[in-house]
Amino acid sequence: EKPRLLDDGEGGVLFFSSSYSSSSGFGFSSTEKQRQRLPVYKYRTAILYLVETHATTIIVGETGSGKTTQIPQFLKEAGWADGGRVIACTQPRRLAVQAVASRVAEEMGVKLGEEVGYTIRFEDLTNPDVTRVKFLTDGVLLREMMDDPLLTKYSVIMVDEAHERSISTDMLLGLLKKIQRRRPDLRLIISSATIEAKSMSTFFQMSKRRRALEGETFEPKVEPAILSVEGRGFNVQIFYLEEPVSDYVQSAVSTVLSIHEQEPPGDILVFLTGQDDIDAAVQLIVEEGQNDRKRSELIILPLYSGLSRAEQDLIFSPTPRGKRKVVISTNIAETSLTLEGIVYVIDSGFSKQRFYNPITDIESLIVAPISKASARQRTGRAGRIRPGKCYRLYTEEYFINEMPAEGIPEMQRSNLVTCVIQEPMISKMILASGELGCSEEIMTIAAILSIQSIWASSRGAQKELDEARLRFAAAEGDHVTFLNVYKGFLQSNKSSQWCHKNFINYQAMKKVMEVREQLRRIAQRLGIILKSCERDTTAIRKAVTAGFFANACQLEAYSHNGMYKTVRGSQEVYIHPSSVLFRVNPKWVIYHSLVSTDRQYMRNVVTIDPGWLTEIAPHFYQQRQLSHMPH
Ligand code: ADP
Ligand code: MG
């Protein structure tokens, strides 16, 4: 195959091709027929037999073969949810939990939240009396273990997407192995797209036979079963860049437009890394395609966590005749969600990954190169309904010689504190707010901080957004600014027009209300006094300090570019441009989180009095770095 030029003029993208084969496909028909055509359907009896007879069953199968949506239904049909028991299926991602739960409810013809439900952090759509098939994040199941260490209500727990090696999945696998020794009735299914099935099997091999419990008649085999589900393949042709590019967003956009110009119908799936670059790409396609008569045929859909149900539905709904869907996604579409109709995949070669530096004690989300295993998964998404094409925005030489074969498990690149103690900083902040008499305000702040962003960013009008933000800005910083937004929202009677006018994301605000309500209930149960401080921002900022004292930073004395140093590690950090304190640069601040791009940026920043640090967190600060601190 000769190299092909996929674009004319400047910004041209030149690709070389090679070949790859991928998974099965099928057309559209009635739900039941669709179910029967999925590769796992043929294995229904085998799966049920293995689960019956083995404590652990490991199932490996191509993305889209029906593992997540079908296996829980098989189990239900076979009686594993009888007698009030529950079948659980975990996912590393919240959006995947919502999407598959709603799909399974639809296939079973039941209302979501009844027989089929889901639980993610801050959102519980289950009814303990009737829910029999429950989808949840691995993190939520870990949390449930605190109240019920043996997870007694579950008959089968399917740990899905195990190949992702998310930190919560790994924790869960370790703890489930322990639970198994005490609960011979419990069955585990470990499922994934690609996995080292042998090492997983070795891990779950039970070393010693338990003593049979009284009245026990049947014991499952201690040796895990391994089942591999075959998919039927369509070829995917791979194209590489001839030269590396510096701007993968621009390059992805050019490739989308060229495919649309030159290639026959079929939807496009673009892998970028997060809300920022995805929104930027959407914006660019709209702008660059403006003078293009064919442009109106494109339906451009971003896909990242935090999308509303309606937005999710659009992603999954079939493409109308004469149109071409362009889904611009994080790596959630790599294996967690399968979109029908994709024929072209554009792979930026990057994803957002968590990295922890134990020396500086800083954990950040970084845009980092993906592994070969991920690249192959992404490519496979193009071959679902017919032969497809995958455009890799990197060179073949890079793929072969530099891309790592496998990713590093999240556990090896995270700060383990949050695993051992679940969200300690927010909790401490809320507890302190009870004593400081500002719990109502802190509850609002905590709810907003739990949401990615309350600002409507995707409309691309950066200047207007900045102006809107200024209308709410408080000199004390972002946390107090949030209170102004929340107050305005309540005064507008929670109006969506008001949100639109002020560049606030209405869906996010609704979520804030929900989370806040949940936090209030928890606080009430714990006996925290619910009280408003009537805008005593000192009390509010002290409560924030009580939780986040470890994130205190001081402006460098002679810094002209707003450089701060963290008090604890003397790391260079800067205020993020999205903060109301950007360019204001007060002397002492506390940040909520860090994002790394070219520099370490502090997101959500509040001003403090340095004296509070020794007052509120003497155990941390007394004899330490603050000896030079002015009082
Ligand atoms: P696997 O877990 O093996 O990757 P899934 O069970 O997720 O496979 O997917 C099986 C099929 O169900 C796929 O054809 C997929 O497109 C379809 N599907 C899954 N979720 C949805 C949804 N929310 N809406 C429409 N189709 C869906
Ligand atoms: Mg799946």
Write up what this structure looks like.
With 631 residues, the chain is an alpha/beta fold. 37% of the residues lie in helices and 21% in strands. It has 23 helices and 23 strands. The strands form four sheets. An eight-stranded mixed sheet has the order 1-2-11-18-15-12-14-13, with helices on both faces. The chain has an eight-stranded mixed sheet with strand order 6-5-7-4-8-9-3-10, with helices on both faces. It has a five-stranded mixed barrel with strand order 19-20-21-23-22. Strand 8, helix 6 and strand 9 form a beta-alpha-beta unit. Helix 8 packs across helix 9, helix 15 packs antiparallel against helix 21 and helix 16 crosses helix 18. It is globular. The N terminus is likely disordered. The structure holds adenosine-5'-diphosphate and magnesium ion. Magnesium ion (MG) binds next to helix 3. Magnesium ion binds next to helix 3.
